[in-house]
Amino acid sequence: MDQAQSLREYMHRFNIQQEDKHSARVITITSGKGGVGKSNFTLNFALGLNEAGKKVVLLDLDLSTANINILMGITARNSLADVLHRQKSIWDVLEKGTAGIDYISGGLEIQDLMELDPSTLSFFWGQIQKLQTYADFILLDTGAGISKELVDFILASDETILVTTPEPTAIADSYAVLKTVLQFTNQTPKFRLVVNRAQNFREAVDTSRAIKNASSSFLKFNLSTLGYLMEDDHVRQSVRSQMPFYISYPNCEASKNIRQIVYSYLPNSKESPATPTRGIRNFFEKIFSIRK
After folding, report:
1. Residue 153: enclosing H or E segment and its boundaries?
2. What is the pLDDT of residues 183-211, one digit of tens each?
3. pTM score, two decimals?
4. What's the Cα-to-Cα distance from 257 to each of 54, 114, 211, 276, rounded to whole Å?
5. Hey, which of 78, 125, 210, 217 has its CA 20 to 30 A from 3?
6. What's the Cα-to-Cα distance from 277 to each of 23, 157, 174, rounded to whole Å?
7. CA pair distance 73, 203, nearest whole angstrom
């Protein structure tokens, strides 16, 4: 029996023994290309959920250009890699960010998990398990572009928010993400589209329609739109000051857009018994299953 198989069997037994009434909902947030405002959206969406009374943990898995902490003006002292090597508990690496938002820096490759001894992985799994009932939502901020890791994250998550802008290249790359993910699964992954930095409502709707029509026509996939964010100078000002616009400019257009997105999202976030929330432990279990 190989190490990955042993770990999967361990996690299965752990899941049976540790059934919870509450499971954090895991949402991957990604984009087809960089520069579309994905991380900024992730942070401010988290703040909007927090304002609505939801407990949120941000997990920065963009290993090449991790910048959630920069947007909050904080320096991450620890990372998930510290848990992996038994240096820290999950509570040690959980940083407090803007407005009390919980943040964890990734700092590790998923492949690293496959190469460690079972006892170390068992410790890591036990620590990850503690987030299961701690949060309502765990938001995974991933790297932009298409990679095997991104596909794994999307297929393992409860759902994915795809962020784009009206630029033709961003639209094309968003379509490419959908096409690539669908090539790796016979299931129907749950995607929601967010159009960022639209000049006006008409441009936002046209952008959404272009991606949805292409997905429907060529991929036979029905993509739903979660919402739009208009171009707003306050966003750039907040990035420079390293303070999220949702906090520094609560009444600006972008903040109002975030509130509308949160309002639209929350009534639809409850799953039926037939499609239960998998949670963070099952997210990692799925990752290992995909990579077996």
Report:
1. helix 148-156
2. 988 888 999 999 999 999 999 999 999 99
3. 0.87
4. 18, 41, 20, 29
5. 78
6. 7, 9, 25
7. 32
